Input
Amino acid sequence: MSGQDETRQLLRAIPSVEALLNEPAIARFTERMDRARLRDHLRRILDDLRKDIQEGRWNHPGETIVPEIVRRLRDHIALVHQPSLRRLINATGVVIHTNLGRAPLAEEAVEAMVDVARHYANLEYDLSEGRRGRRDVHCERWLVELLGCQAALVVNNCAAAVLLTLNTLAEGGEVIVSRGELVEIGGSFRIPDIMAKSGAILREVGTTNRTRLSDYENAINENTRLLLRVHQSNFRITGFTEQPPLDELVRLGRQYGLPCYHDLGGGCLVDVSAWGIHDEPRVQDSLRAGVSLCSFSGDKLLGGPQAGVIVGERALVDRLRRNPLMRTVRPDKLTLAALEATLRLYYSGRAETEVPVLSMLRSPVDALRRRARRFIRRGRRLCPHIRFHLRPGASVPGGGTAPDARVETVLIAVDVPSFPADAVEQRLRAHDPPILARIEDDRVVLDLRTVRPDEERTILDAFAAMA
Ligand SMILES: *Cc1c(COP(=O)(O)O)cnc(C)c1O
Output
């Protein structure tokens, strides 16, 4: 038989789409999608298969055509039906990784979210009065308890908190800020741009490394509305620097009847210095210094969902609440449920063990070394061809937290024979679920600080598949 006859015969052996839809191995895919979508997938697969046969890329016996179609269909469906947003394993040791969704939530926060997601909720309903209520009461109560502030408001993220605050308190007026604080913060958060959109006019004072109280005082005029301090989240100017302490800025503001607003970013409520993170101000410290308002993210050191929290004086918070912009930056019920549950963990004194960001950061290096040793023992058993060894290193808090901070850790360096480090890294990334690792000195390294113990097996399986 000539090649052409063979090709023709194979093409004729391809069943019709309708006949294929009645094959049990194919019909069972209708449990997960309607027939129209399945028919669509089948047409594409048959088109590709016809082309492969015509161009000589597929020339197996005709009776293997249906199993081939089923196999191609399964692969195709697995690929195109895969969600775009997926969980992954973070073995980079960067605890608050903006590209990886920042803070993983505490179990109780997840449960609270699922509960209100599945059901109706008293989001804006006052159960004791039996009438319309406010969505901001749910978290405010806990923030007031925890921080001793007068009032609190939750918005979509901290950038929105800054926009809302500046627009409410300073639209058309001037805001004084030190030049040294006007920088881009991770995720292209640029204060001057937000300021411009808020309608407030920026009055930069001082130089990049030195700003004195007198610089602020000299800039005050009848159009001044606010004194702003922005926490230098992801950078430090070191050496010859000067910045007036926050309480002095507050005192200057009081003298001129101007509120002082501190954009903190981090949202740290506990003392993290014992874990090697210095210079990360707590929200309480900022309030104690007397600022009128303070804002921070929900998903940085606080360890909750994406949100922006504004705390401070009731009169000012009430003005923010009444701003029509509030309607554009309000959080949804899922965020509020997760944030409230996270705040309750702080309230009951369980945050350091239950909030993942905190429990990861406080994990002692000895405990990480024990885990790493156990991981390596299992690794040598499961993948004897791969070399694992321990090396000292540093985890990074990340997320604009204390930029100099390096938390001592133990790294697992991995050598897979005949795989260069970037190929290993790429294989890990292509795994399901994807695994993200670091490359240091041409070697893939894993930091178990950001890996859950129940994820270790998945990482080992991914290595075992690299033979
Ligand atoms: C991170 C950060 C922001 C932006 O917070 P998002 O929650 O990402 O919007 C604002 N200000 C400071 C000081 C920050 O560190």
